[in-house]
Every structure is written in structure tokens, then in C-alpha cells.
Design a protein that fits this description.
Layout (H helix, E strand, L loop, with lengths): L4 H11 L7 H13 L5 H12 L8 H15 L2 H18 L3 H17 L3 H17 L3 H17 L3 H17 L3 H15 L5 H17 L3 H18 L2 H17 L3 H18 L2 H18 L2 H102 L1
Length: 401
């Protein structure tokens, strides 16, 4: 299972087919943006999006996407607004390794695409979200979003994207051991890639089909597909991808009773893993070579590689444990800092509330005093007027007498 993870992370980028980047085109767009002050917000959006699609992930990438979001909101262009959040989401997942923030941005872009019936964009966002969930091993959620992507790509008859999505869905199904569904999807994707010159993806597909056939004990068919993948990857010198297929090919030959070929593949896996200097790859290669030697009755050699395997396995477990503890400590410190900030924010809000209550109370008191003063003044005037009338009546009475 572990042997598919790194392959698929790389394939996520391969499958998301994009146009070739042109730095000169990006620089031209930036020059126009800086020198032409009469551009409308929509024109700025077009230039910014072209720039973003033609630069690599660099320091200015996030600032450019933020500017794209700002101008898209001004112009009311949901198409450009989608790409502002979508590109930021991809940046966080692929470059910054921040899956949580990346997923939040991608989900926001997906909502924009859905609300505004941007069919291809809904497919792109769903596909990338599915790939992100695959990386964190949430395979069923990944499948759910990939099914949405597949539906959208079929609606626009985008064969290239359909095949990419089928391939990624197959990776999820093989991870949950649903081999029949995985085989169907790999086979569908293979039909498309056989009509293209995208041989790397075709090699991965056939290699993974070979792995499934090995598990189904279809050893001859597995040999054909695994050999195709191994041969192509050897020519490309893709050592990282080769090692898992060497191991699978060795396991397949062991099951077929062809121990010399199984040994050859296992030794190649060990040699390649040493060159790659990957502890996980070396661990897996040592485990396979140990199994081959044990099956051949070479117990002293099997024991030697068992020790190497166990040593590496324990080292990796220790490293993972230390990393997990460090992450837990970091999470705890972040949580503490966040709690402190939350308390400060709560105190600030409370002070604002008290301040406003004080101001409101003061205004009410002033108003009441004004009312009392006005009523008192009015009452005084009325008393004075009554007194004057009384005096006038007395005067009139005296005159009558």
C-alpha cells in the first residue's frame, strides 16, 4: 500500500494537464499592469491570471493571487474569482504542504464554480480536492470528489481530464483493496493514454494493473504489465518510481516459482534504494530480499537482511514517533497561543461592550436630566402664569367691590 503513495503524489501533478509556462509572457503581462493605469478591473484580471498561469511558485505568487481576488470582486467576474482561490489552494497543497488551508481554499473555489455553473472549473476543483484527500489517506472522501470531477468532465467531453480522473480514482480503489473497481478504471484510463504520447502515465497505469493482477494470481499477465513499467522507468532512470515495481515484480516471480528472476529484481530494488538514500525504500527492499533468500533456503543471507530490515524499520518508527511528538508539541504551543489570543480578543470585546454601555448610560442620563430640566422649567412657567392669573382675578374682584 505504501508503495503507491509517492507515485500518486507525483502523478497528481502529471494528470492535471496544464499549458507550458512562459516566463516572458508573464513578464510582459506584469509590465502592462505596472505601466497602464487605464486598465479596467476585468482587463487586470485577465493579465493577472495569465501571469499566474505562467510563473512557478515563487514569493510573488500569493500576492498576485490576492490581487486577482481583489480585482475579480471589483469586476464581478466569478470566473477569475474562482481561479484566485483555486490557485492559492493548489499552492498550499503542492508547494507549502499545507493541506488544511489548501483544502479550505479549494472548497471555496468549488462553491464559486457550483454557484455560477462553471462546469470545467467545478471539475478542476473537485479533482484537486480528491487528490488532496488521497494524500491524507481519506480515500472514500477522495473518491466522492473525484466522482464529481468525472461527471463534470464527461459533461464537456474532456477525454484527457476524464482519463486523469479515472486513473486517480483507481489509485484510491486499490488503496482500499477494491481491486475490481481499480482494474476497470485503470483499463479505461489506459485506453485513452494508448492514443497519446504520455508514456510515463501509461507506464504507471500498466504497472499498477500488474500489481492488481499479481494479487489476483494472474501471474503471466502481471509479468507483462510490470515488465513494461520497469523497462520504461529504467530508460527514464526514475529510480524512486522503479523501486516499488522492482519489489512487485520480484513478488510476482516468487509466486511463479522463478526464484532467480525474483532474486534479480529484489537485488535491483536494494541497489536502487541505496542510490536513492530513502530509508523507507531501503526498508521495503530489504524485506523483499529477505523473503527471497528465505524462500531459496539461503537462511544466513535472509537473516542478514532481516537484521537490516528490522534496524531500518525501528529507526523509521523512532523518527516517526519523534516527528509526531514534535508535531504534537507544536500543535500544543499553537493551541496555547491561539487560546491566549482568543482570551485577549474576548477581553477586548468585553472592554468595547463596557465602553459602549458606559456611553449609552451617559447619553440616557443626560437625556433624562434634559427631560427633567425641561419639565421643571415648563412647570415653573405654568406656575408663574397661574400666579399672574390669580393676581389679575384678585385685582378684578377689588375693582368690582
Amino acid at each position: 500500500m505504501r508503495q503507491f503513495i509517492i507515485l500518486t503524489i507525483g502523478l497528481l501533478i502529471i494528470c492535471c494537464t496544464t499549458n507550458a509556462r512562459s516566463r516572458s509572457l508573464a513578464d510582459s503581462c506584469l509590465h502592462i499592469l505596472k505601466t497602464n493605469s487605464s486598465l479596467s478591473s476585468l482587463e487586470k484580471c485577465d493579465l493577472l491570471l495569465t501571469t499566474i498561469h505562467n510563473i512557478n511558485y515563487e514569493d510573488s505568487f500569493i500576492s498576485l493571487t490576492n490581487l486577482l481576488i481583489k480585482e475579480a470582486e471589483k469586476s464581478g467576474s466569478y470566473y477569475h474569482l474562482f481561479y484566485g482561490y483555486y490557485e492559492q489552494g493548489q499552492y498550499n497543497i503542492i508547494h507549502a504542504a499545507n493541506n488544511q488551508e489548501g483544502l479550505e481554499l479549494l472548497l471555496k473555489s468549488l462553491e464559486i464554480a457550483k454557484t455560477n455553473q462553471l462546469t470545467p472549473e467545478e471539475g478542476f476543483a473537485s479533482f484537486t480536492i480528491g487528490g488532496a484527500f488521497y494524500q491524507i489517506k481519506d480515500y472514500y472522501t477522495s473518491i466522492k470528489y473525484l466522482q464529481i470531477a468525472l461527471k463534470q468532465f464527461k459533461a464537456i467531453s474532456a477525454d484527457q481530464y476524464i482519463a486523469s480522473t479515472q486513473f486517480q480514482m483507481a489509485n484510491n480503489y486499490i488503496a482500499v483493496n477494491n481491486l475490481d473497481s481499480a482494474l476497470i478504471l485503470y483499463s479505461k484510463a489506459k485506453e485513452y493514454y494508448e492514443t497519446t504520447d504520455n508514456l510515463p502515465v501509461l507506464a504507471y497505469i500498466q504497472g499498477n494493473i500488474g500489481v492488481i493482477q499479481k494479487r489476483q494470481n494472474k501471474l503471466d499477465s502481471a509479468r507483462v504489465n510490470l515488465s513494461f513499467a520497469v523497462k520504461f522507468l529504467e530508460e527514464k532512470k526514475d529510480i524512486q518510481a522503479l523501486i516499488p515495481y522492482y519489489i512487485h515484480a520480484s513478488e510476482n516471480e516468487m509466486l511463479a516459482g522463478r526464484m532467480d528472476i525474483a532474486l534479480n529484481y529484489a537485488q535491483k530494488a536494494v541497489e536502487s534504494a541505496k542510490k536513492e538514500e530513502s530509508p523507507i525504500r531501503k526498508r521495503d527492499a530489504y524485506a523483499q530480499l529477505m523473503s527471497v533468500y528465505a524462500a531459496m533456503g539461503e537462511y544466513h543471507l535472509a537473516y542478514d537482511y532481516q537484521n537490516k530490515y528490522l534496524h531500518l524499520r525501528d529507526s523509521i518508527i523512532n523518527i516517526e514517533t519523534i516527528t509526531q511528538m514534535a508535531n504534537m508539541r507544536a500543535d500544543f504551543e499553537v493551541a496555547q497561543k491561539q487560546n491566549e489570543l482568543d482570551r485577549m480578543e474576548a477581553s477586548r470585546r468585553l472592554m468595547h461592550i463596557i465602553l459602549w454601555l458606559t456611553i449609552i448610560s451617559f447619553v440616557v442620563v443626560v437625556f433624562l436630566l434634559a427631560v427633567v430640566y425641561r419639565n421643571g422649567k415648563r412647570r415653573k412657567a405654568m406656575n408663574k402664569e397661574l400666579l399672574q392669573k390669580q393676581q389679575a382675578l384678585k385685582a378684578s374682584k377689588k375693582e368690582l367691590e
